[in-house]
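Inputs:
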Amino acid sequence: MSYNNFQLQAPAKINLFLHITGKRDDGYHLVQSVMVFVDVGDKIDFAPHDTLFLDVEGPFAGEMPQAHDNLIYKAAQLLAKEYGTHVRGRVNLNKLLPVASGIAGGSSDSAAALKGFARLWGLPDEQDRMMKLAQKLGADVPACFIGKPVWAEGIGEKMMRLPEMPAMHFVLVNPLVPTPTPEVFGRFRNRYSPPIQFSGRRKTMHEWIADLKNYRNDLTDAAMEVTPQIRDVLEALNGTPNCRLARLSGSGATCFGMYDTAEAAIAAVNKLKQTQPRWWVAPANLVK
Ligand code: ATP
């Protein structure tokens, strides 16, 4: 492998909670959320090439849109236009995250693509400029570009890093029913949460869990109307030993369980894989 070749991870995002606090005149929903990233994600290989060559493999490659609709391709085009260069590179996406599943696989690929092409094309390290491009690519892309825990509000564009998170251990479960975000918002009945003040000053995982229990994912009912299997997933997670909290992420259908230790999370994974062999089940640890 040449030293010009490199691999980037596109980590899955989890919304520890997701409040919808209103809607702007232009139709965008106002949110408040803590978004974190975990050590489970897609893998993207980059190598120099004269033109753009995008190959997709992995368990969820078959559910991906045509190359030109791929968010990796869109990121490449936007970046090339911004810096007045042409799109090039050989890119291999190993699609390990389920598609349209509430854990921002596409957004995370897109954020990783901005970083990867910038490195491949030798562009200057300009974080603010890159964040503006990330915003254009999608609401979750700036958070994915940061890739570390953030408190997000507004339409997701106001972000504050949460640097002092404790270790957190999760189990991610998806019933493998694609759940498109627009359909879920279409069923959301505008039952808004009152805005909260959030300081992020919780130290231990127990403090976090106690606090998270006061919050919720406001899209849960709407997502369950689109994908009723979400109810079974939450029930199954709640039924695993030592599960401290089970909740939907984003617009679903992926749900997460939280556990005190990585061992407890792995025990839950083993149990779920036995009882529900058709579901996507993965242990995951917080990226701090
Ligand atoms: P979010 O949590 O941000 O709502 P999601 O996890 O629900 O995201 P994604 O997996 O990001 O959803 O996919 C959203 C849509 O984007 C899919 O319907 C898919 O067709 C399209 N898409 C384009 N490029 C990609 C990509 N590289 N990976 C996944 N989806 C992609």
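The beta strands are 6-23, 29-47, 52-57, 89-94, 150-154, 158-161, 169-174, 245-248, 255-259, 280-285. Flag for discussion at group meeting.
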